[in-house]
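Hi,

Apologies if this is the wrong queue. I'm a grad student, and the batch job for Formamidopyrimidine-DNA glycosylase from Trichonephila inaurata madagascariensis produced an output file that my downstream script rejects. I'm not sure whether the problem is my script or the file. Here is the sequence I used:
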Amino acid sequence: MNNTKRNKEKEEEKKRLAKALKQNVLKRKKQQQSRQSRPLSKFVCGEEFLGKSTAEYSNVFENDKITIRNLSFEGGIMPELPEVEVISNFLLDKIKNKQISSVTVNNWNLRVPITKNIDDLLKGKVINDIKRRGKYTIWNTEGSMAVIIHLGMSGKLIYADHDQVRDKHDHVVFLFSDNTSIIFNDPRRFGLVIILSKEQEINFLDGFGIEPLTDEFSGDYLQELLKNKKVNIKSALMDNKLIVGIGNIYASESLFRARISPLRLAKDLTSIECKKLAAEIKNTLSDAIAAGGSTLKDYAQPSGSAGYFQNNFYVYGKVQKPCRICNNIITLIRQNGRSTYFCNACQN
Ligand SMILES: [Zn+2]
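Support response: The file is valid. Your script probably expects a header line. Output copied below for reference.
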């Protein structure tokens, strides 16, 4: 009798939780939609964006697919959440509380033009904080401004003890009052360096999906996000409007660790699979951060040292190689124009 009662209570608690979760996700979606349809208020700093909505931002910033196809680029690494986290932590250690003495721009034409008056806006300002959101590193400065940096496909931030441009791809030099500097180098110029006011920064970040390393991101949350998604699970994981920071590498690796096939439809994942997947996304990203990120081609930490998480890959880039778990040959397919690596024996 007691057991039946307890079970019933448990069931009701579960239902209550599911309802609360659903409301939470819906509320978030509604907030995002209303903000996306509303044009941003006039830009104080980044006048290039005047009148653009955050939905347009997403098109400019998040659509890596298009740039990849145009360039037929394959094999390098675009920094994902772990790499940007490592970079942001490094910067926090090196340049927090430093005063900017000048910003020199050698090439204004990145994916979107660099904010025109960047030197005027930042000169003399102290950097109060550095954080990561999705794949962006954000420096908050005195005067409530935000320096928003995205490394695109090949961007690097180099910490140096000089302000000398030594490479033709050194596009921006932030010089600090102690004569150290951060140099933004980007051969393919798909990166981004813009200045936003506090209000603009808030609007900009509102268009983002959930951060996967937060407590809020759970199996239940993931299932709610995927409920009506009729796309393959790998593409859903890479959709930054749902979850931020997961790109091609960490989507493939998380799915392998959770033993879920990238071919599955997102909406068909069971509650147990969502729990497993959410946990493995967290594990994969945390392990990669601890390893200093992954270095395949272009990525390096600002100190110049490489990350080594690529040595731990199970499937990414392992085409025609045996699976570490079952010896089956790793399969390579294309999904939405991107390479997907998986083991069709381990992953169902
Ligand atoms: Zn296998």
